Amino acid sequence: MDAKKPVSRKxxxxxxxxxxxxFRRFILFFVVVVLLLGLTGAAALVAGYxxxxxxxxxxxxxxxxxxxxxxxxxxxxxxxxxxxxxxxRIVVQLxxxxxxxxxxxIAAEDSRFYQHQGFDPFSILRxxxxxxxxxxxxxxxxxxxxxxxxxxxxxxERSYIRKIKELILSYRIEKxxxxxxxxxxYLNQIYLGHGAYGVEAAAQNYFGKxxxxxxxxxxxxxxxxxxxxxxxxxxxxxxxxxxxxxxVLNRMVEEGIVTAEQAAEARGAVLDIKPRRNxxxxxxxxYAEYVRRTIEARYGTETLYTQGLRIYTAVNLELQKxxxxxxxxxxxxxxxxxxxxxxxxxxxxxxxxxxxxxxQAEIDKKPxxxxxxxxxxxxxxxxxxxxxxxxxGHSQGVIALADMEWARKPNPDxxxxxxxxxxxxxxxxxxxxxxxxxx
Length: 439
Description:
Elements: H1 15-53, E1 71-74, E2 80-84, E3 88-89, H2 99-109, H3 121-134, H4 144-153, H5 160-176, H6 179-189, E4 196-197, H7 199-207, H8 216-223, H9 238-254, H10 260-268, H11 279-282, H12 285-299, H13 301-306, E5 310-312, H14 317-337, E6 345-346, H15 352-365, E7 373-382, E8 387-392, E9 395-400, E10 432-437
Parallel strand pairs: 1-5, 3-4
Antiparallel strand pairs: 1-2, 6-10, 7-8, 7-10, 8-9
Helix pairs in contact: 2-8, 2-9, 4-5, 4-6, 8-9, 9-10
């Protein structure tokens, strides 16, 4: 009987079938891990949001906007004779602000203002990269809404936690207020340098006119100030202010707000930038100070300086000025009867030029005019001609003996009318720094 031949069998090929199963397990594991990480991250974000939101200020205060504004004092003819304020602000409605000025601010500060919901991710990313490169916080990427948030609700501290708070509040403001309402708050609250808060006060500060009368050149100058009001001050740093103005005009062209021709015309315009008059000092300062003390005693400092009081008085400016002038004349006459107390100081010959240069710098700011009292240095005393020559900066003048007869040495035992000097040299010597009145 033949032995059975062994039958060869091929082993079952199962390995290839296991690979797809392992791959599916790996994919499933990866998806689960990603989901867990996503859920953990989302939970952390939600927890962080609620943690940060716990002590956030309420935005309800913005709905009843009552800023610190100017109290004004009026004369009998309704002319303003004094202003008292902590922040020099004049509130204007948005429809009183020229659209060109609004567009200038938007072009310079937040070109996507009407597209974003309180913050602009593109600006934030750009600022983040700049800060990363610098190793510190240099830029904020702030929108106009964020600037409103910072001005009203937060401190100026720079940190990422405060930035997150700012983003949350800005989003809430966008949900609670219209774009026009946000612009109204922004244009009245923003600080624009030299004590001016808001666009109306700034227009009066720099150009001596109301915001509704501003030209394109003036609008672009104001819109360049929010970033750094001190650094771009038209008074102190006109060149830097000019460069910032050109930046704003270029942005307005890029955004299609004005044409290149209009921008070129604005670039060529010569701006009449002049400091605002200090009416408190220039008009009737003693009377105004009396009013200030009276109102402050009756209503308190906070009310006087923040609540925008309208204080109407019975003072007549012309009569009050005449009265003050007569009192001053009487005081000067009384002082002269006491005699001449000597020069303010006496200069050596080599000190005269430096003194005159310093004095001329003061005269350049406030030119000489009849009645003005200023300092001068005696150059020459001529007793035979009975005059003294006095230098005032680059100018010279003379004092006649008749105008200095009173300048005797003080002596209470001698009547002033019996002790007049007979020669200029009795009172003056070259190099004396004295006070003189310009005729």
